[in-house]
Amino acid sequence: MDANVTPGRGQWGSKIGFILAAAGSAVGLGNLWKFPFLAGQNGGGAFVLVYFVILLVVGFTLMMAEITIGRHTQLNAIGAYRKIKPSWGWVGSLGVLAGFLILSFYSVIGGWIIAYIVKAATGTFNTSDVKMLGDMFTQFIQSAGTPIFYHGLFMLMTLGIVIGGIQQGIEKYSKILMPALFVMIVLVMIRSLTLDGAMAGVKFFLNPDFSKITGTVILSALGQVFFSLSLGMGCMITYGSYLSKDTNIPECSLYIPLIDTAVALLAGLAILPAVFAFNFPADAGPGLLFITLPAVFSKMPMGGLMGVVFFTLALFAAVTSSISLLEVCVSYVVDEWKWTRKKATVIIATLIFLMGIPCSLSQGPWSEIKLIKGKCILDSVDFIASNVLLPLGGILLCIFIAWVWGLRRVQKISKTDEGKTIITWALEYTDALKEITNDGQVNFALAPIWVFLIKWLAPVAITIVFIQGIFS
Ligand code: TRP
Fold it and tell me: Is the pLDDT of residue 206 over 60?
């Protein structure tokens, strides 16, 4: 074991183990459920295009930033900020709060997935009648008890893995579940693309209609980049903190978004063509995964089995993400309050389960309660966490790295201020930031670009979109 590791904290067993765990965190309901329906609601290709631009400018940049902070400090989200600059701990706290909120509704949707595995296994939705499937879905999520039961089951699974720790829990499961998921989604996509009329869906998904690009579309794409890559709340700080000092951070930060985006595109191509083939409205929203996919399965040979396998893998994708959300909170309590992992995991998971109950009820009995912009509880919690807390966390992260940590670094390396021109100073500053990227270990050719993005483009772009989106 690495001499730098705090005893009892845990560490990834291998680079591939880390990449799969981090990609497992990134790939989840955000890809399979949210991305296709957001694209469906926000002009298809237009949304996908905006998503890509934001991914390039913001996604890669922040991924590298978070992993770097984590590996450098070897601490949880709050502790990491604090270690570099004590007065910045509250930024980490915002992140832990976001993780708490996200998991509370994420787990409710995860529960729906479990319920759908059961429905697929018992042949309940063996019909291609989309109207019937729609009614069935609405009826299910509107009921009070059953969804809460499944939400509890989902939290229990999450707890069961996190309690095992880094190598024996998170890494072990990610290594099995991620490759299996990939194979399955390719299979479903092939089936979907070979349906009559599927091409209309492909066109919709890949043809950008620029007139559809509005402030709202851009904000939801931004929110989605953060959500899908697990950025803006210290999740990758936490995962990065279990890395040994010799990992090549730029390399890892490239693979994770690539895998995540590949799965999001595959999911879009698995779902939207089928939606068009069945003449189902593409802007159906959150019901897409639960209404349209069962219809696709009923049309294919061995569709019942296919349904079980697909929803099982969707569950795996969701679980490899939910464990990362729980780990952010657990890691904080274990590092800072010195609780045992077991105690921390059980107590926090229980609290999150309780927080999720109102989210679940807001789909039925409590649907009249509107919190923000006319949204129900679940959608409001999602909005606050994904579209407010995550972008805010992202802006602060950029400022922190570039202007707080970076300045401190440059002060350390420059010996004297005498006779220094602004240009030499700027060069030293850039060098200091470059060094941060890898803790000065790996030669990263694109470092100057990263420096520019994290200092200027990313924070400014996120701020503009964020302010516009909030007030529109
Ligand atoms: N990225 C996951 C998904 O796409 C969800 C998730 C896990 C997440 N950890 C996160 C979202 C941290 C935001 C922040 O489903």
Answer: yes
